[in-house]
Amino acid sequence: MSYTVKVKESLCRKNTNLCCKKAELYGFLLFSGIFSGDRISFRSENECIIKRYEDFFRHLDFTDFKISEKQTKNINYYIDIYYPHTSDLITKIGDVSVGPPLRIDYSAFENDCCPSAFLRGVFIGGGFLCSPEKSYHLEIRTGHQMLADDLIRFAEEYDIHFKSVLRKGVRVLYLKNLDGIRDFLAYIGASSSVFDFINAEFEKSLKNNVNRAVNCENANIEKSISASQKQIKAINKLKKKEYLNVSSELVELAETRLAFPDLTLEELGKKMTPVLSKSGVAHRMKKLIDLTKKR
Q: Are residues 180 and 266 in the same domain?
């Protein structure tokens, strides 16, 4: 099951009142309906969606529709409404227009709760949502240019800001930022999906922090190894000359480094007698390296 289907099925289980049923059905109709001269047809591979809007029809006391299914690669479910019953359906929804060109008619929204229901129907009808584990991407598609422009303006009234691109003659409205997608999902009532995105962001943030810590640690290890090799090279140069004119405390450090090439300066300091601090070891090690520069 794709993530889009999962979200749509979750939305199809959401209860709603009669005014919002009208608004949601209107959004679904505009963004999934196929309008011809004598009928309106809806198609979906998801039986849950078809059953939801069949139920909406019956709550609106509209029964003049036909449900059928056709199996090719997948089962496709259809709802067909034939003329003159198409106008009867529009009357049941409200005083709205579905004739070309398709536009959003605000008279379909009876109460303040209806716009969110409308957008829910829009998403169920023409929406796509990528799993948050893969990327942040939500789309709504329509072949009707003016309808796409209307939806952009409509969504902006609720602080949802779609961007738009034309793809093979189809207008694609999309959101690619986490906050925008979460706001949209929260507004249409997809609360479980909001938590999916919150959890995905937390996991990505945690993973990034771990990776940064590991990279930092690896960089420190590489730096330590490089410094140790430089120190050993200098010490071997001094040792070949039997540590001529090298103080006993520096010889002790040099021999300790040769014995423990992988230790950090702090760890080397603990091997010394008496114990030296990291800065003390660094100071003496610098003296050893400086001695090689003079020889």
A: no
